[in-house]
Design goal:
about 400 residues
Length: about 400
């Protein structure tokens, strides 16, 4: 079984119990069981999107474009369940919903693929009503549409990955579609955060070309370094085998590679110097622009402040208001109880005298207690000696 069919059987929407319905011609479910019809179509859409993203559809070289047709039906066929009979209906539904977008239309379209026109929607509705514009075919033979189509979901996911790596928010599905990058057919210019998106100009083209040249020169230098090493090895091997002719040829090739390497290194140095000056000039321009914006902000703030006259007036009003508050506090303070400072001082002195008297008494008590302790020790200390004498044996 192919890798694609294994992927189908492992897909969460293609459980074994659902395979009979998914591989059947379920077009009649649109009238008999619209929910089942919608579920089957949605399951097939998700499978086609995921299989393309994994490089399993077609030759696997393009993860953004799917080629529809009988070859796709054959790829999806299983021995047990046969051909997916309603795959053509699924593709038609996806095209109608603009989940699959014709490659040529996608690349040539100037406005965003998400652009919606009320007038256009009304006109399409009217054309469908009078039979001049048809809805996706769900009756008759479910023949699959042949063509190459952009898988919009995969392009959106890839764009988000690109912008995540370039510190953007979201990128062009094409640049026009999400408004995060400009595109001139060859060069993509991402929008700088906080700034307006600008189209690709001559300056952008020159910088892109210089960066491309630097990348090319670096690859050439890397290859030439490898060539020099290879020629050295060949020369040594030839000398070891006494093959003078091969050794001479290898040394000549090495000299040619070294000369080319020297030229490429000098060229790279010149281009990098030019690039460094351009980047410095760009930084200077950004700095000047920021200074200009800052000056405008300061001017605006100064205008809002109103100049020195307004500030002086505000400060005078502030001083006057502060003086009024102080005056009110003084008046309110005078209306309260008047303290007698002499009474306070007298009471404070009494407290200090009381504290001194208490401390003096404590010292006297401690002195008396110490004297009593000494007297007690005098009367008690001879007793152990007497006892000692009494306990001695008679001679």
């Amino acid at each position: 079984m192919s890798e694609l069919l294994n992927f189908v059987l492992d897909h969460p929407d293609f459980r074994k119990t659902r395979l009979p319905s998914l591989y059947s011609d379920f077009r009649n479910l649109q009238t008999t069981n619209s929910s089942a019809f919608t579920a089957n179509v949605a399951a097939w859409k998700r499978l086609l999107i995921d299989a393309t993203a994994h490089g399993l559809v077609g030759d696997g070289t393009d993860k953004l474009v799917i080629t529809t047709g009988e070859a796709l039906v054959t790829q999806m066929s299983m021995q047990e369940w046969g051909r997916p009979l309603a795959l053509g209906v699924v593709v038609n539904e996806a095209i109608h919903a603009k989940e699959l977008y014709p490659v040529n239309t996608f690349l040539s379209q100037r406005e965003s693929i998400y652009y919606w026109s009320y007038a256009g929607a009304v006109m399409n509705w009217g054309l469908e009503k009078v039979g001049l514009k048809s809805k996706p075919a769900t009756s008759g033979r479910a023949r699959i549409t042949e063509g190459k189509f952009v898988v919009i979901k995969n392009v959106e996911n890839t764009a988000r990955d690109v912008l995540r790596k370039t510190n953007q928010k979201t990128s062009q599905v094409e640049p026009r579609d999400l408004g995060e990058a400009s595109y001139n057919g060859k060069i993509i210019k991402f929008k700088i955060q906080g700034e307006q998106l600008s189209p690709v100009n001559e300056q952008d083209i020159t910088i892109a070309q210089l960066r491309s040249l630097i990348s090319t020169l670096q690859r050439r230098i890397e290859k030439l370094n490898l060539d020099v090493s290879t020629c050295n090895e060949k020369a040594r091997t030839a000398v070891a085998s006494k093959n003078r002719l091969m050794a001479t040829a290898a040394l000549k090739s090495r000299k040619i590679a070294e000369n080319a390497l020297d030229t490429q290194i000098k060229t790279l140095s010149q281009v990098e110097d030019v690039m460094a000056h351009i980047e410095q000039a760009t930084s200077n321009l950004d700095l000047v622009n920021q200074l200009e914006k800052s000056t405008k902000v300061l001017n605006t703030l100064n205008k809002e402040i109103g100049g020195t006259e307004r500030v002086d007036r505000i400060m005078d009003d502030l001083k006057e208001s502060t003086a009024q508050v102080d005056e009110l506090n003084q008046v309110l303070g005078e209306g309260g109880a008047v303290l007698d400072e002499a009474d306070v001082d007298e009471e404070l002195e009494a407290l200090f005298m009381e504290e001194d008297t208490k401390a003096r008494r404590e010292r006297e008590v401690a002195k008396i207690a110490g004297a009593d302790l000494k007297d007690t020790q005098k009367h008690v200390s001879p007793e152990p000696e007497a006892q000692k004498n009494n306990m001695m044996p008679a001679s």
